[in-house]
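Quarterly update, task 2.4: 4'-deoxy-4'-aminopyridoxal-5'-phosphate-bound model.
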Amino acid sequence: MGHEYGHKTDLSRQSYERGKKVLIEGVNSPSRGDAFYKPYPIYIAKGEKGRLLDVDGNSYLDLMLGFSVNVLGYSHPKVVEVVSEVIKGGNHYASATEIEIVVAEKIKKMVPSIDKVRFFNTGTEATMMAVRLARAYTGKKWILKFEGQYHGWYDGLLANCHSRPIDSLGTKMDPVKIVEGSGIPEEHVENLVICPWNDLETFENKIKNHGSNIAAVITEPIMANQGAILPLPNYLENVQKICKENGILFILDEVVTGFRYLNGSYQKMAGLDPDITTFGKAFGLGFATSVVGGKEDIMQQMQWGKALSYGTLNAARLPLEVANIGIDVMTADNCEGYKFIYDIGEYLRSNAQKVFDEQGIPAIAQGLGPMFQFYFTEKRSINDVREYAQFVDIKKYQEFSRRLISKGLYVTVSNGLHQCSCLQHTHEDFQEAVGIIEETVKEMKKENLL
Ligand code: PMP
């Protein structure tokens, strides 16, 4: 017992047994629980730089980084310093503070599409507010969301987020609307139009048929919830253009990509100009804060509580002081931090691909810079959730990820999530990671598992 992962994890198993008595699955989100981490989750005791230590004393090089929030890595000295100082004055007053202005000014400077911002606590709250703002501003009800994209667990956006067998999805032009999970009345997603991603023709048709009722189109710039699926060339630019031509707001959900890409956002790197943007995850570096930003007249819909957006904990001091330091660290020396995580991510992705190719394994390491995922597939790229559902062998990935973890490389165990790089990873770390990947591929090949 206690070796289910191939290394010693007795204390994790004991924590799981104890945790299950008071917590569902022994954890606090299904993505951390025993549905993914079989037969039980590994309990983490500590993070340091780019590594994690579990309760059994195993050390891992971490590519999961708290579902991508820890873009500075763990216990960055500047974060430790600011947290220690700020907390002496208390965390939150729910009254006006200067730090809100300071961080808002920095966001506005970094993200040209944004005139004004409001802070919330989670990505879910941010996307929920973005949708409400779009409806308030346009007076229209419908929202177009793309298949396979996840924007948080707000009822109104919880349809067609996960991958499913292809024959349950309906046609591309007429996807079956599938509510995610129980407890959500069908009418809560009644105003959603579902559309496949990376398929401009179908999108144009949807807009032709329903455009006059659609308040907004919401999309992630990189699909982060089926691994790391990149937009085809000019796809997002064309979606944005069609939105603008049809009086539809273009919402870019940068909860995953924000404060991670060159100059801080995917939109800045790609030259996009969304009407509303959401940020979370890497913005708060693991502290609960998120952002809705957008054009002046749209954001004004919130004035005097017209489009309601309360929140006792909005803009708490500690998370915003941390976010502020995060921006300073990553943008120092002409955004050297963002360049570093981009380059080191590309190094790992391209070298993993080399390993697959040299070993003759049909697999791809797909992504861009600081986010990427491994797909066991005969395809040379995966472009949407339908391809993911049909052509990606997630069972192989599950075995692969489990073996990587047992050898000290902490990857996401879900093929639908992705790996990330952080500022405190080093080139030596990533050479080590490539070595572990190579050893694992060879081992699984020998056992005829790939
Ligand atoms: N948008 C995207 C693109 C996400 O990936 C997520 C979370 N994975 C969210 C929104 C929701 O963020 P949170 O979990 O902070 O509520």
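Highlight for this quarter: The radius of gyration is 22 Å.
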